[in-house]
Amino acid sequence: MPSVHLLTVHGVGRHHHLSNLLRTYQTIRANLTSVEAPSPGEDQIPGWRLTRFEEGESPPFLKLEPRVEPPWAPDGTNAVYLYEVNYSDFAGVVRQNHPINLTALLVGLDLVVCAARQRPRENASSVFGGDTARLAHCLQRVSGVLTAGTVPIIGLPSIVFRNYVGTFVATFTRFFEDVATFALDKNGEQLISSHLDRTVASIVSAMRPGDRLVLAAHSLGSVVVHNFVVRQWTVAPEKVPDTVVTFGSPIGLLVWIWLFLDFEDMDFSRQVAGGDHYFCWNPVSPGTGARPPVSWINVVNCVDPIATAFPEAALDLWANGPEIASGLKNGAITQRFFGPAKITRVGGAHTEYLNDKAGFLQILLRAAGLLSGAPDAVGDLRSRDGHRAATLSVLRTTQWGLLAVALAMIAVYCGIIGWRFGSRGTLWVAPFFAWPALTISTLAFFQRLMLGGPTKRIPTELIREMNWWDGASFPYRLREKLLSMIGRSRDVDPMASSAGGFLRLLVNLISFIPTGLAMTIPVAVAVWLSGKSPTVRQAWEQLWTFPGLLAFACFMVYVICCAAHELVRSWRQVLRILEAPAPAAAASALPHAAPPTPPSP
Amino acid sequence: MASGIKVIWEDLALKLLNDRDRYTRQAIQDEFRRDPRNEAIEYDTEQGAFLTPVANKRFYVVWYQADTHSRSGTAEPVVMVRAVLPLTNVNPGSPGLKEYVERAVKAESKGEFAS
Asked: I want to staple A278 with a disulfide (CB 3.0 to 4.6 A). Which of A261, A406, A483, B78 is the partner?
């Protein structure tokens, strides 16, 4: 009887050797969300026993066998091998050897979004539907939040409260580093892809006829697996898995951004001229021909900001609809929608898939042959429309909640300052901070102005062509104009060293100025109303008192809530845009027919 | 909601059930009592024996149908539960299913009982 080989691929973040493998195994056997030692009743597969743990093999694996040998069946399973692909360690080494400045990365993204948004477009339609121009505005707002996110928003608390927010900052940093390592750094992408290729080749070489290969990939891991499947589909059918389970997958998100940034009018057959493309990857099939059908199941949790129920056409932009359909079992991706619609799960839903025993885990166990039944027979918790409605409902509550917390925090901040100065009138400053979009766009403006110069991907010439009257591009133009006036405007030399540590520190310190100024506005008003004027030494001493630190923490939470508010607002808007009928030009959005000649792999 | 069908657990079934933790015991009993025929597979047509998956298909209840006579003399259907087993790869129509269940019963009861 055949065996099933289940290979799990992790997402972004730090994952130790074996952690992904054991995490998958443990979550099948126990409830990992409980802090108590597991009881036998938590075991989802009591009929299976662990017979081997080969941690020294390459790849390491666990072997599971039935306690009692079942009768032969064509789709039966007499053994399940669990493997892991762990690229986390060497992705970290890649970034250690070649550090990427996170601020530069995010400001660079904002700049390239700005350039793409202002590129002339006609009939800009994509396989995703929706109004491209409006979606682009949402992307610009998100990139603006991220631009402001590094130094002015997260930078300050990460210094003062580093003992408490260090893990969050490290996760935030590692998230973008990993995405950049696979999507922007050709070296990183090739190393990770080679690692997956070798792992799959090792597994396939040990498989017997009739054995099945199942790939289960989370988050960025699904992008890595998608890239792998598309590359192998037409050229190495023996390596193509029988089943792919993607969960929390950003494939749709990344493919949309790829089309938007690197192609004219979102048209895959018309790549932007020149070689300065933003993405380094090219997840398209290298040829035509028969595609072994893959049973592809994509699972999306409610309020997972990364996950997308991407269309089949997004799997391989090079191929046309019938070609892609021929490579999918039943001609389509099976989309499944799970996860509780709760405000406490916003964002966190992205890492909760393996804990969903009744939903996602049922699919995984069936796909691996550990439970009887077809994986795609596991029903949704809610329909696609229900999922969208539930997400919008939770996000609306979240957005208002964030606004309320932001207002409360700024009120407490102004209140503490007013109390220290004996002037209640300081509270009247709070309404000036009541518009999160203004707060964040102000911080983003200064970040763009201070750091928004040309990059390896955006030349000076392109910045000069940007619109003066656009809120996002104005600071880039202004900076460029000012540098031109003093003769310091120049393109980036890709072979030159970046600015030294001292200069980076200086720029980061300057980046704090807008946040610092915003914090001093209530102080200035309090001084003006009370007539008391503390010395610098007195102000410094006040900062390190309990009320001073409390006020500081309140302002920090206020800025973070404003940023989160803007992200949630954009998320809601994207859902509404995708829900709305596409504009006339985009109504004809269809998978593109294959161009006449295949691109290089 | 209970199905209204009387369920009688035989000694072996009770022993195997009591080997499980209390949450699993409860889940199996409740779910089976609710509808013994839900997704039931007839694995032994001669004896009219069935397998019903319970608790997310983690376990299968092995049962057969019998009739008892009430005081008024009318025959009432009764579900007799023979065993509760953690089975894998249960495929309806599989030719070796009956032997598989027998082997599983023997293994689960440590050879004490044979189906």
From this structure: A261
Residues A417, A293 share a domain: no
Q: Note whether A19 and A151 are same-domain residues.
A: no
> In the numeric block, which tokens belong to residue A548?
């001073």
The pTM of this model reads 0.89
Letter string b/e over residues A530-566, b meaning 16 or more CB atoms within 10 A of that residue's CB: eeeeeeeeeeeeeeeeeebeebbbbbbbbbbbbbbbb
A410 and A313, same structural domain?
no
Domain enclosing residue A235, as ranges: 3-97+182-388
Residue with tokens 């409830």: A31
> Across the interface, do A44 and B24 touch by the CB < 8 Å criterion?
no
How many A/B residue pairs have CB atoms within 8 Å?
Answer: 80
Q: Average per-residue pLDDT in chain A?
A: 89
Q: Look at residue A219 and tell me if it is in a domain.
A: yes
Kind of pairing between the strands at A61-66 and A48-54: antiparallel
Cα angle value A187/A190/A191 (rounded, 5°): 85
* ipTM for the complex shown: 0.85
Of A222-236, A245-259, A392-406, B82-96, the least confident: B82-96
Single-letter amino acid, residue A123 = N
Q: Are A464 and A580 part of one and the same domain?
A: yes
Asked if the model's pLDDT at residue B24 lies above 80, the reply is: yes
**Lowest mean per-residue pLDDT among A21-25, A122-126, A211-215:** A122-126
pLDDT band at A206 (very low <50, low <70, confident <90, very high): very high
Compute the nearest-CA separation of B90 from chain A (Å): 6
Rounded distance between C-alpha atoms, residue A114 and residue A116, angstroms: 6
A398 and A377 fall within a common domain: no
Q: Which CATH architecture has domain B6-108?
A: 2-Layer Sandwich (3.30)
Separation between Cα atoms, residue A555 and residue A88, nearest integer Å: 35
- Rounded CA gap, A165 and A544, in Å? 19
Residue A71 at interface with chain B, using a CB cutoff of 8 Å: yes
Residues of chain A contacting residue B90, judged by C-beta atoms under 8 Å apart: 70, 372
Q: Does pLDDT of A194 surpass 50?
A: yes
pLDDT at A408: 97
Q: Is residue A84 part of a domain?
A: yes
Domain segments of chain B: what residues?
Answer: 6-108
d(CA A178, CA A90): 11
Number of domains in chain A: 2
Residue A599 in any domain: the answer is: no
